[in-house]
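Sequence in, structure out.
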Amino acid sequence: MKFGSVQVAQALGAILAHSLKLGNVRLRKGLLIAESDIEILQEAKVKTITAAQLEHGDIDENLAAKMLAANVVDKNLPELRISKPFTGRVNIFATRDGVLEIDIARINQINGVSADITIATQANNARITAGAMVATIKIIPYGLPLDDLRAAQFGAAIRLHQFNLGYASLILTRTKGMNDKIIEKGRVAVENRLKALGCVIDDLAIVPHETKDLAKAIAAARHGVILLLTGSATSDIRDVGPSAVKIAGGEISRFGMPVDPGNLLFIGKQAERTVIGLPGCVRSPALNGADWVIERIACGMEVTASDIAAMGVGGLLKEIPTRPQPRGGIANSAKKPKIEIILLAAGASKRMRGSDKLLEDVAGIPMLRHAAKTALQANVDKVHVVVQPGLPARETAVAGLKINRVISHRWYEGMAASIQAGMAALSSDCDAVIIALADMPDLEAQHFNQLIAAFDPAKNHEICRANTEEGRAGLPVLFGGRFFETLAALQGDRGARDVIKDATGYLVDVPTAGQAAVIDLDTPQDWADWRKNRT
């Protein structure tokens, strides 16, 4: 591939390397130069451009990304979906809940072929929810030698195992004088864990904390996976739990794991059935080593002694306020973060030729009401709608909704003034705020919820920006508390994008379905096109 300065007259078929603004026309980066583009450049008296030119044996970035994605994902696995290529990038998404399996050696081989070929994945054996991005492939230059692409095709390296256990048995033991509340707490905690994996515990036994009693219960259990939660912690392989498995004709393959909390787990077999001795920490909903084992077993994956031994790196777990608890991905931690939405609705609709875009009909109601109702459906604590004074039609549009109406008295100064007004209205104990526009009709509550799920200050994920699934940056954007002061100090027509530019180290892009993150409607033609595309 050639890259550099190209005479406009010889630029047909070249790929524009940098965007150009020529009067009212904008030629975007990555444009494949056509005859009409050459005419525009010549009319603007542009003589040379910086461009890439594919040579014999080269392959376009998008086709290269698509071909590599098809190679690393087993085409017979419906659990994974490959997005359309865009600017040399292809994203791979989960279509179901499950556990991700990565062939680490193959991924390393791919990334070692050429710096022009990159593939990034979530962690091996990570628990995945449907809709999550599990990997992204990016071809760095505009074109790639076909030989390099072929050298990077090592075969399938990404697989998602879906939860398919169905049913499991649970046995609890009771020590003398043990409170019923402790028994019940353990039962509920384990059942909730399994329920989040699509598994039902319909075979429950509560027996005395004695080896013989427990052995009988193990032998009588009905299902292929048996979970044991003993009333007293298992402190040795010769303790009640492991000994009972042996008396029942089974064997222990591993006692103890290098994960904290969760050290005292054991695992074994009895009559071809998997037996898991749960550590006492499972009575808490907090993440622990048992979750890693149960998740894999629930997918039908084998968990060997060596698998458990390999869990030590990353096995030092800690519970933080924003970590989602292991119950179906719902953020229900010890301290759930308090998140509020600022819906910006104070604009003047200057480009609508006398109409108000926020009063346009969407699903039978005004756009502003539709946007506010969508925000209220998200997992947030409060929705603030920022409006300008003196517009009764907009006031009527949100009448009766449980929103906090905020007046932006300096709305005419630009977006920053409206953001300032919204920031001033936030609750004093708010942990994060989502900045959203009121003229984006395709946004749904799930778009807000995906940003919330990505918010993780422990990983510096404190700016969560909605993207299309192809990778185009859009809105809304979530900001953690460390950026509140910056947002409140914005001036003029500066918006959230300016804050992001100065803090990319805290940015995480969150893929969302469709094009909702980039569709905002500012003109009558925008609205006409949007309605035409929906019919």
